[in-house]
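Chain A, query sequence.
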Amino acid sequence: MFERILTISGKPGLYRLLSSGRNMFVVETVDAAHKRMPVYNSDKVVMLDDIAIYTDTEELPLRKVFSIIYEKENAVLPFDLKATTPEDMVKYFEEILPDYDRERVYLTHIKKMYSWYNILVSAGVTDFNEPEESEAAAE
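Chain A, predicted structure.
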């Protein structure tokens, strides 16, 4: 499920890929509204599976960061995004990922990541593990 979720530049929230055509995709919002809309090739679309957080040693896939939060907090972030201070957001991020690259990961990235996490959890998407590839497909 996680591998079909994407973000669209200039549009808030997350979207689920429903189908693709020659010059466009059909997506649906992940939130409770489930609004469908077309997205064209001219729009910048990024799959969440392609996003990673820089650390001092490697790039950690976003799904692993979400998995760390989910296991630590039992699904719910310990603060309200709208009421908390930027310093508290960064402090919590340092708790879950102490070796993140402080020069390349900005507060805007952290806020967006928390927002996406909340959207996914409220929509019931909580399986952040890697999809298992079958042995036959690998051969």
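Residues 134-139 have pLDDT under 50 and may be disordered. The chain has two domains: 2-48, 51-122.
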